[in-house]
Amino acid sequence: MAMNSVDTSKGRLRGTYIAIMIPIGVAINYIGGLIASSLGLPIYLDSIGTVVVAAIMGPWVGAISGALFNVVSALIGGNIPSALFAICNIGSGLIVGFMAQKGLFKTWWHVVIASILVALWNAATGAPIAMVVYGGIDGNVGTNLMIATMQSIGRDLGSAAFIARIPTNLLDKGIACVIAWIVLMKLPENMKSLNGAKKAA
Amino acid sequence: MIQERIFPTFLKKVTPGPKLWLALGLILSLILVKNTYYAISVMILSIVVIVLEKQFGLFKVILVAMTVLFISMYALHGCIAPNIDKVNDPVMFTIFGIRYYASGFAWATKFYLRVGPMMPSLFVIFLSIDTADLSVLMCKAGIPYNAVFTFIDSFQVITLLNKDMDQIRDAQRSRGLQTEGSLLTRMKAIVPIIVPVVASAIVKVQDQAIAMDTKGFNAKCKKTVYREFSPYKADPYFKWAGIALSVFSVGYKALVSLNVIPAFLTNML
Can you give the pLDDT at residue A129? Predict the structure, then answer.
């Protein structure tokens, strides 16, 4: 049997794929963060792996990969409270995973909708988590400058932390979704069915 | 051929279980007790241990993150923290017409000293844990083999992908990719670096899945571990220190919350 004709969408091989893809998602997230900091960018780039894995493997595997990334990253950096940001990544994985499963991650405007939904989710959940963990200010220069600007025009810290995260997340998650979409389009046929989407007749 | 011999340091000789207990004790004590002197002591002591363990080179990345966080939190919270009463609170100093409040400084201290000391202390503990030893510990604790593999593999794939990323970045630079300059120039460098990293990782998945399956990854039989670690003489001290810190911190917080004892150790907001 040729390798490309192996059905990986179900059965025990799917379990093997899950065990491989989750760590890859974690590592891509981590490397994305390193690239952002090495290029001195005011964005995070730490959800590319979650979105890629969710698009390929489905929502729940993507969510687990996102949550595990935050745990692993918190352990490596010693910043345990930051593991709470896993809630943001779980949401990103679920949104993109369900969209891909329903066939809504195929065109450029699907990607735009996914980016907006993921960015809003991350801003809505990231702001209260940043309030609990860091008192509203984290180590991201771009977000902090936006928060300071919002404060200077009379916003309270909570709403400033939320509004400031929207443009940062739109850019950040937009890049993540576009990369996931490019990778998904280039995948061999047998790997496209891993997310549980119904195959075309 | 001359080979470099790497002698295990004191922390590396301690087995993972006791170190995890100590990590739990440190996390709970820093979050629940909220004492400035204790937090600063933990931070200084951890940095001393990092130097003694000869890990300061790796710690520099964490130190940069700690410094950025420190500057961001103290600079901004001093001016805009939600607890500031701009009419009644004392102003510490004014710079370019911006007032820096004492209550904002206290707010920054509250949050920074909860996270800051954890970073060096947990960094040095987790860095000294051998992932193979940790996987044995997790298997013996009854965690399913697949879950242990996924967790431990995450750390290993990060190292491998990091090497790939360095190679791809250097290759793209040699082809003329600009990674320095204006914000737009640096933004343009993201896709040519990240897409090949992601693509090369995904391409290897199929081969790895087949290889793992043929080696019996999904075999239904009970998995065994052949690696055994012998306990080190300092293991009990680490374990009981961790348990004592955890019990004390939880007990102290519970008694303070129930108004049984005053918060005599807490001196942060």
Answer: 92
Q: What pLDDT digit, counting tens, does each position of B59-74 carry?
A: 998 999 899 889 988 9
Q: Identify which of B126, B157, B199 has the shortest CB distance to residue A75.
A: B126
Q: Where are the beta strands (DSSP E) in B41-129?
A: 91-95, 98-101
Burial B1-35 (b: 16+ CB within 10 A, else e): eeeeeeeeeebbbbbbbbbbbbbbbbbbbbebbbb
* Distance in angstroms (rounded) separating the CA atoms of residues B235 and A112: 54
Under an 8 A CB cutoff, do A12 and B213 touch?
A: yes
Minimal Cα–Cα distance from B136 to chain A, Å? 18
Using alpha carbons, list the distances in angstroms from residue A58 to A11, A92, B91, B115, B157.
15, 12, 53, 34, 21
Tokens of A67: 């949550």
Q: Which residues in A lie closer than 8 A to residue B81 (C-beta atoms)?
A: 135-136, 157
pLDDT digits (tens, 9 = 90+) for A29-38: 999 988 888 8
Domains of chain A: 9-195 (1.10.1760.20)
Strands B98-101 and B91-95: antiparallel
pLDDT the model gives residue A189: 72
Determine the residue of chain A that is closest to B161 in CA distance.
A27
Q: Is residue B149 left, alpha or beta, with left meaning phi > 0 and alpha meaning psi from -120 to 50?
A: alpha
Host H or E run for residue B70: helix B56-80
